[in-house]
Structure formats: C-alpha cells, structure tokens
Amino acid sequence: MRMKPLRARSRVGAFLTALVCLTLSACGEPAADYREATIVDLHDAMNRDELTSEALVNWYLDRIEAIDGSGPALNSVIELNPDALDIARSLDDEWQVAGPRGPLHGIPVVLKANIDTADRMHTTAGSLALADHIAPADAFLVSRLRDAGAVILGKANLSEWANYRSNMSSSGWSSIGGQTRNPYDTQRNPCGSSSGSAVAVAANLTTVAVGTETDGSIVCPSGINGIVGIKPTLGLVSRNGIVPIAHSQDTAGPMARTVRDAAILLEAMLGTDSEDPASAAFPETPRNYTANLAADGLAGRRIGVLRSYWGAGDHAKVETVFTQAIETVAAAGAEIVDPIKIETPGMWQAESEVLDYEFKADLNRYLEKSQASVGSLAEVIEFNSANADTVMPIFGQELMIAANQKGPLTDEEYLEAAAAAKRISREAIEKTLAKHKLDALIAPTNGPAWMTDHVNGDNFQVGSSSLAAVAGYPNVTVPAGFVSGLPIGVSFMGPANSEKTLIEIAYAFEQASNARKPPEL
Question: How far is CA 102 from the centre of its chain?
C-alpha cells in the first residue's frame, strides 16, 4: 500500500502547536477554527486580510493528519498534493496583486482518486494495478477548477474501480487506500463509491470535494455522511479524464456541506469540452446556480412524493424522517402530490447489461489513452489474479470477468439494452412530471449506515438513485435528519437540465430544515 507523501515540515509538531493554542491560548489570540466554514465565509476572511489560502491549507493538512491518519482514522484521503502549499502561496500573491481570479480562489478541493491530475499525484481508482499511474493531462473539470483558483488538496479514497469489481465488495475499500470509515460511527460504512470525498467533507478535512457517480455513487455517500451532493445531467460536467464505468451514466459532481457551496463548485466545473460528445452538446453559457437562492424557494412549487424506491416502507425510522421532510417542504409553501408511483419494468436488467458492455469498452479506451501500465481490462484482471493476496483479500472480481466476456458496442444485445434503459427511465420521469405538473420528485436518499462487513459485503436498505442515474437526469441530495445518530438525506430529482430549479428547491429545504450536524470527532 502506497503511503501518503511526506510533507516538508512535521505535521505532528504543527498539530501539537495548534492544539496548545486551542486549549491554553498559549499563542495569544485563540486559534482559528474553520470547521463548517463555507466558501463565502472563507472569502470574506480573505477579503479582510484575516486569512490566507496558505494558512487554510495548513489548517486542513493538520486536521487530516490528526483525524484522518490517526485518532478516529477515517482514512478518507489517500494522497496529499505535495505542491498544495506552494499553489496556495502563489494564489495568495495573485490575490494581493489582482484580486480573486474566480469563485474558488484559494479554496481547497479534494478529488476522488479516479479523476486525472497532471501533477505529482497519482490517478489510481484505488487499484494497486494503477499504483504508479500519473495521468498525462488534467481532467477537463480539473483544468476548470484550477482556472477558478482552486487548490487541489489531495485525492480521496473510494470503492475500488468505483465499485465495479465484485457484488461482495465493501463500499469505501480499495487495495491502495484500505477501508474508509463513517465519521458518525467509525464501525459503519460510508457508502460509495465516492466514499472518501464524502467523509472528507463531512469531517471538515476540506472545504468541498468532487465525486463521481454511475448509479448512487455521489448521492448515497453524501446522504449517509450528512452532506449535500449533486449528480448533474449527463454531459453537463465533462467526463474527459475520469476513470470510467459507463459513458451512458458516468458523471462527476460536487459534494459540500451546504447547497450554496455545492452550487459554486458545480458552476466552476462546467464548460464545453470538444473531446466529450455529451459535454459538447451543452452551449458555453453562464449558469448562475446561486443567483436566486432564497429561503422561500419552495413557495408555489409542486413536489411529487416518490413512493416506489428501493426499500420503500421497509424501514420505519427512515419513513419517519421522510415524513418530516415532506411536512417541511409543505410548510415552506410547496404543494405536495402524494403518492407518486413509477413503474420501470426491465430498467435494472437493461442497466446491468449496459454497464457490463460499456465498462469493458470505456476502460480499455481510458487505459490506452492514459498510457497506464495495464493496457486493458483483461490485463487488470490478470494483475488482480497474480496479486490476489493484496488486491483481493476480502472480495473478488466477478463483475470484471463478466464484463470482459462481452463483445463490442456494436452487438445487438448492447444496442437493445442501451435503448431500453434510456427509454424506460426517461419516459417514466418525463411522463410523471408532465401528468402531475411537478417541478421535482422527492424520495429518501439512503437508509442509516450499515456496519462495515468484510465477510458479507454491503447491506443497502434504502435507495432512490437508479431512476435519475439511468436516465442521465439530475439528482440533488440534502441532509434531512437522523436515525439513531446516523444521517439520512432526501433527494430532489427532475428532468434533464433542471439543476437550477433543483438547487433552488434544495436550498430552501436546507434553510427550513437546518438538518446538517457535523460528526463529533
């Protein structure tokens, strides 16, 4: 297992100094505390010359060492950017001369470890097969973040290969990073596959993070770790430079502690990428998702209560949180349409077929283009088998083997499944919204986090991600409450390109519910 890179100065010494300052005020003024600080808070402090990006990055580095690498040992960040402090200093100098270059100037961002960075960090997807892989170019979204002034702080652990290796996997486990832990109960699972991104945000180890989703991999870890996650419309964020599962469903998206921060991060990631056909379909126009965020953003909206999600009605305590969320939405001025039941016969079977075919084709293309040491899915499978003791100590690779047996994307079996998956999911959403004149659907994002189990694998009880994921439509999850101290989120879903509406709805719900509570670490 590759260890985190050593930094120039002792993090242990820096943390102990900070601890003395916090407890004894031995350093004069009380030490600053940036837990739960928003982007607006941090920029306000920078504007007042009370904070620099370098100081903020140092604060997060110390906290990562104290909480992630030791103490509760959340294990969410698997690699730190050795250039982060230099980048922060440069951005501080730039701010003094020319002012902020963009909405993320000097703000630390953690990236899921399947997102390419052309620097001294690795892009591994959590796999030992890619342990030494350095991408030849930044992912398109990373170049956009750098243009906006972000400091790429590090890479986050994830479910290895974005959880497309085995049906018996443990979410948040990878052969490079080990097991990421839920900050609300470290014996419980963080969900996945964007596990480390969610935990790093929830535990205040970064300001914001970027995750990726094929089906549930942004919204589930966001919900289970008590944060906001946005899965955008397919293609709104370029897929170029991301280790793939399936091009028909893959997308990156923001993860943050507040809806506003998630919206700011999403805006910064956007841009038309000629190398991604889905992204190229979106015109290069400003999308100011934060312009109309207001506490009364639910007034006059028609919200449909989805009653046909995975595990619907099976968990009484989740239903209680969901009922309270619906009451909050209604009290904020929305008109509730309940129940909404959506039948999607054949969708999951079609999705499964599509993912197998596309995983093989898309991963082979990525590995070849990125000049990785393993050049195909077949070589990954061979590497895993040859290094089974370290790569597969708790689960196998049957999903990879099944995918590798598929033919090309010209196969009739694939073409029929791909058409069916999109037709079933999109028609279901669009017809339902039109029939009931709805602005959005609401459903529980997740059940309470399950105990991490390296024998039996994951134990999902409640989920609602598949409908929007297969359709390629947006899904925004927001903290809604707790079950026995474990966070529960609710999801707002809508048609293609409805991010602005969903973000405004989610923001109003967030203001009315005030459900986010940080973990006690």
Answer: 22
